[in-house]
Amino acid sequence: MAYRFTDLLPADFADRSLREDVRTGLTADPKWLPPKWFYDKTGSALFEDITRLPEYYPTRSERAILQTHAAGIVRSSKARHLVELGSGSSEKTRLLLDHLADGENVYTALDVSGSALRQAAESLAGNYPGLRIEAVRADFEQHLAQVLRDPLTGRGAGGRLVAFLGGTIGNLRPAERQVFLGSVRAGLEAGDAFLLGADLVKSPKVLVPAYDDAAGVTAAFNLNLLQVLNQRLGADFDPETFRHRAVWNEDEAWIEMRLRATRPLAVRFENLDLSLVFAQGEELRTEISAKFTRARLEQEFTASGFRPDGWWTDPGDRFSLSLWRPA
Ligand SMILES: C[S@@+](CC[C@H](N)C(=O)[O-])C[C@H]1O[C@@H](n2cnc3c(N)ncnc32)[C@H](O)[C@@H]1O
């Protein structure tokens, strides 16, 4: 069965929203940008390469949990409809799709990256001929409650499983996470369940190499953001003048990915009428990746109107899957 592609983002989304983010983040001190702009075609492909790196344990650990527990989790949810937020390549998702309840099965993949969505949907359509696939381009930080109430995401279908895998929740800052959880909760109906993949706090000796690998793939992923800015906004960044850095912030319990200017430089954004300077050693924060404890997740989810309904980790206790229901 083919898939259907629905674009819920306005035609000028990338331009307008990226412009706003650049104006806000790059004129702030310290400079920062949200991580959603990493994922152009090159960035999405580089992220897939990262998931296969020896240092990058999250994907392998999450897959190990799914391999052991997905059947039980999905069967207990009795869901026929799986909705995935930030679905990317939808690779691990197959382990969930394999266990949807009998009847018409639907998979709604939601991502901000059109190229990742199309590639994933095409591949799934070949392997799951009976599955209805809805590929939805949307921003899960905007209008999520509305999107979850749309028939595209199976509202009224009775018992959906909404998955948010890969530790992507860690990319949201605490206040953004609170808004996000509120939107998910507002979009869920009784009988729905929310499945979360979250990375756990551990030694920086394990964490830092996961975001600064020996082969330099994460560095290429981080630096590609500058190419996105060059292409989309006519900026004139020279990626050669920046260095990738991964830093564990103990107080915030998150990894920060940064780009450090190796010399003083000026950047002009042709399409934005904006010029910036970087001092030598000045850093642009491009991503946070928060790490969690079970207690912290329970506290935040409970505060947002969920109740816990399951907790699983991999044999090394590196990564967690947890199931939440409307309280
Ligand atoms: C860390 S990757 C995880 C991909 C996949 N879920 C996995 O576990 O391998 C994050 C994914 O979320 C998407 N994404 C990031 N920010 C988003 C946003 N605000 N709205 C929708 N998708 C977003 C990216 O395009 C990317 O595919």
What this model shows, in words?
This protein is α/β, with parallel strands linked by helices. It has a domain at 55-202 and 294-326: 3-Layer(aba) Sandwich (Rossmann fold). Helices cover 36% and strands 26% of the residues. It has helices at residues 13-26, 41-51, 57-77, 94-97, 114-127, 144-148, 174-187, 204-210, 217-233, 294-303, and strands spanning 3-7, 31-32, 81-85, 106-111, 132-137, 160-164, 193-199, 242-249, 254-261, 265-269, 274-278, 283-290, 306-313, 319-326. The strands form three sheets. An eight-stranded mixed sheet has the order 1-5-4-3-6-7-14-13, sandwiched between helices. A four-stranded mixed sheet has the order 2-12-9-8. It has a two-stranded antiparallel ribbon with strand order 10-11. The longest helix is centred in the first third of the chain and has 21 residues, at 57-77. The radius of gyration is 20 Å and the shape is globular. The two termini are 37 Å apart. The chain binds S-adenosylmethionine (SAM). S-adenosylmethionine binds at residues 36, 39, 47, 51, 59, 86-88, 92, 111-113, 116, 139-141, 165-166, 168.
What are the key terms here?
327 residues, alpha/beta, Rossmann fold, 8-stranded mixed β-sheet, 4-stranded mixed β-sheet, 10 helices, 36% helix, binds S-adenosylmethionine
